[in-house]
Amino acid sequence: MLQSLGADTVQVRTRQDLNLVDALVMPGGESTTMSHLLSTSQLFDPIAERIKDAMPVFGTCAGMILLAKSIADGRLDQRFYGAIDIDIQRNAYGRQVESFETDLDVEGLESPFHAMFIRAPQVVRVGADVEVLSMHEDKVVLARQGSVMVASFHPELTSDSRIHSLFLQEV
Amino acid sequence: MTKNAARTTGSMQVKRGLAEMLKGGVIMDVVNSEQAKIAEDAGAVAVMALERVPADIRRDGGVARMSDPEMIMAIQACCTIPVMAKARIGHFVEAQILQSLGVDFIDESEVLTPADETHHIDKLAFDTPFVCGATNLGEALRRISEGAALIRSKGEAGTGNVVEAVRHLRNIFGDIRKITQADSAELFDWAKKLGAPLPLVQEIAETGLLQVPLFCAGGIATPADAALAMQLGAQSVFVGSGIFKSDDPSPRAKAIVEATTHFMDADILAKVSRNLGAPMTGIGMDQINERYAERGW
Predict the structure, then answer these.
(1) pLDDT tens per residue, chain B (297 residues)?
(2) Is the distance from CB of B212 to CB of B149 less than 8 angstroms?
């Protein structure tokens, strides 16, 4: 997706990989697994430092959970970054049978964006400094604060690259 | 901004979406809440709730069926990651029950005793995604045409022996590679040979990819086994008896998770493989009297 937009990409699995990148995408997956692996790979703190130094970062679904200020219903030992002033409820839309696709109006895009919500988290509080880019059923689903952008849906699952373009404008 | 477009649930894209989210991870068989916690703590991306792990099913014999809903619900209540459960091949009522329980993925599994010797479940009729086993590309494509959102190898469950899963992965990826080299006339013959729908074969010729993610299952017992499956092209691994039939499940579960993430990094693999205690004993293919992989049509 990002490659099709002209960006060079690498998969970051180690600290050495992290040194190669100017910006980071934290994709969907299971946030408990990601949090665990960030610790075992000794990547958690180096990434926290880079975020503090304003490295652009885009978190989708599980990635959004890891970037939030607080997680309701998370695991007590789950570590996260607090990089954007929102609170998250994990799996708030329910189990997989409740997962859905829908069209979203997105700030800055001329036509609706078709979005996939997979066991998605919900934003339950938004800080005053957070710029809301899209809402669905009165919940914030796409937001930005400084160099941090988050989505509760998965723009990486569809072929529409416009949300990734919005992120690349920051890089 | 608050205008609400309708939600569409249960679409093929939504089903495949969850399969995509499980990529690069480990799905662990668990028989109770305690094991489910160990699995989640170790970094599993999902658990498979079942009453007996395959090694025990193999030992006990008899008819293996869907697990007690009570036991599945207890596991759903104790962990936050997706919970999968198994239905017998062709037993669409077990699948209806699992969907009603809100199971996140249904495994139409050869590990249980088949309920229908001709038909698999019509998986398109469900909102819950299905994973099915396949020993070769034809079987994979038949399951995909029935609506499976995820395919896994059918390595001999409960043996701790990875040889069959390796055969299935090599079969599937080998045929995909050959099909991408075939000309348009040869694709008709491929569809006939595989017993698979022509449009799916043509799609593979064009993309070089299976339509849904392909995971490895069956016989994985060590971190090296998991990394082998990943290097062969599997996108995630299921570990059944391999964890909870070993001497010390928790460290082994963590090691297999790390090995699956860092599957190309031999230094990390060497590190996580140390001091795990004895893996499950395992059995050779000539010592088993029933091959589960032969179940499925």
Answers:
(1) 445 788 999 999 999 999 999 999 999 999 999 999 999 999 999 999 998 888 899 888 889 999 999 999 999 999 999 999 999 999 999 999 999 999 999 999 999 999 999 999 999 999 999 999 999 999 999 999 999 999 999 999 889 999 999 999 999 999 999 999 999 999 999 999 999 999 999 999 999 999 999 999 999 999 999 999 999 999 999 998 999 999 999 999 999 999 999 999 999 999 999 999 988 888 888 888 889 999 999
(2) yes
> Which A positions 128-157 lie with beta carbon below 8 A of chain B?
132, 134-138, 154, 157
B207 CB burial (10 A radius; 0-12, 13-18, 19+): exposed
Structural domains of chain A in order of their starting residue, each with its CATH number? 3-168 (3.40.50.880)
CA distance A103 to chain B (A): 6
A154 tagged catalytic: yes
CA distance B277 to chain A (A): 20
* Catalytic member of A107, A154, A164, A170: A154
CA A42, CA A134: separation in Å to the nearest integer? 34
- Residue B34 inside a domain? The answer is yes
| Interface touch A73/B80, C-beta < 8 Å | yes
Residue A168 touches chain B, beta carbons under 8 Å: no
Provide the β-strand partners of residue B87.
B108
Spacing of C-alpha B277 from chain mean position: 26
Residue A93 contacts residue A117 (beta carbons within 8 Å): yes
Query: C-alpha dihedral over A63, A68, A72, A77, to 10 degrees?
Result: 70
Contact A26, A59 (CB under 8 A): yes
Q: How many domains does chain B have?
A: 1
* Domain, as residue range, for B72: 11-284
Q: Are B194 and B127 in contact (CB under 8 A)?
A: no
* Identity of the residue in B14, B20, B262 whose CB atom sits nearest the CB atom of A100: B14
User: Does the CB of A159 have a partner CB in chain B at under 8 Å?
Assistant: no
Whole-prediction pTM: 0.94
C-alpha to C-alpha distances, A65 to A26, A34, B277, nearest whole angstrom: 10, 10, 35
Identify the CATH number of the domain in which residue B71 sits. 3.20.20.70
